[in-house]
Amino acid sequence: MAASYHHGDLRRALLDHAGSVLEEKGIGSLSLRDLARRAGVSATAPYHHFKGKADLVAALGTDAMEQLDAALAGPDHADPNARLRAMGVEYVMFAVSHPERFRLAFRPEMGDPFTGVGADGAMRGDDVLGFRQLAAVVREIEPNEEQQVALAIAAWGMVHGLASLFVDGPLRPLAEDLGRVRQMAEAAIARMGLSTS
Amino acid sequence: MAASYHHGDLRRALLDHAGSVLEEKGIGSLSLRDLARRAGVSATAPYHHFKGKADLVAALGTDAMEQLDAALAGPDHADPNARLRAMGVEYVMFAVSHPERFRLAFRPEMGDPFTGVGADGAMRGDDVLGFRQLAAVVREIEPNEEQQVALAIAAWGMVHGLASLFVDGPLRPLAEDLGRVRQMAEAAIARMGLSTS
DNA sequence: GTACCATCTGAGCAGTGTCAAGTTTCCCTC
DNA sequence: GAGGGAAACTTGACACTGCTCAGATGGTAC
Question: Which residue of chain B is at minimal alpha-carbon distance from A28?
Fold first, then answer.
């Protein structure tokens, strides 16, 4: 009797349980049936909230992207170059601190969150989570529009690569020491001549 | 009669078929049973050559890593800075040209090819595919050992990030035009002050 | 109060990874 | 050449998965 026929917010519950599974056992162990079981609901109930597994994973990816975006909002130095560097460090720290979330935000085999750059190569930055803040700070640093794209790509590429090497690449053994990661990220970012045009 | 009981080189055949499936339908559609079927063999035969699916995928990752390594051997400019930049461009071009292979080389959920950086942060570059050539050219550019690590990480991070953004990230729509990718990669890499210490 | 409709259930299909036990073939040794 | 052991392969089975479809349920708008 306590359990009502209608769950209330099954969609949210499924996503939350998915988050737990993700952190405990990784994306390979994510199963719709298991999530349904955890939510105390039949195996087919999730299909009333998601088109299928891919759709649920895509929703998780969007969630992750939003969290990354939020983490990037922290730094607010007056100097845009310093802010860009600080944002880069936070990007890497987020990835290392929440590897499953970071992977999910860039996992295209099931659902794709990106539509951020037009086929002509122009940035439509305001449309893309995470890119918005990058575009803003880049505009402060670089007046030339064409160079803005180059700078944004170089900066994003740099920190995304660092993050990937720590999360999925050869630097993984170092990722446990967060202080060291921060230090290495700062060093690598400092090495890049951001302000030179 | 024509078909012998023993396959001959089932391991190689399975990996080859896996390569085809990967390029045609992506890693999500990779199934051991399907590979066995394609090789004309029972569903459990692959277990005599791989511990399981994860082991097969790990072998594919190693293959991919070797191919990436080979692709990086191309450029041979006398100037080490120019060579490093050219290697970076080739890295990105490989990723964009063979996205499934590139992903596989950095896919840890099933098997992990990396042991390249000691817990102390020192490079053990000669042990790691791909890193070997990077370590060599970095040594030519940068005499200071500590700075070598920083430079190597910055350079690898940069090109790996670029590659990832083209393959799995917001720059994906641009990845179809290989000429444009090359041009953008060159611009982004040129922006990074590699030779400044 | 009744009709609607999103939500949820149950049974069932096709496909998967993996294991245990048996069969066939190759190859090395005498 | 004969014998024997090891490697390669098969059959059969189990537990699990994503997904579909027909039907039960119950809140809500009229």
Answer: B109
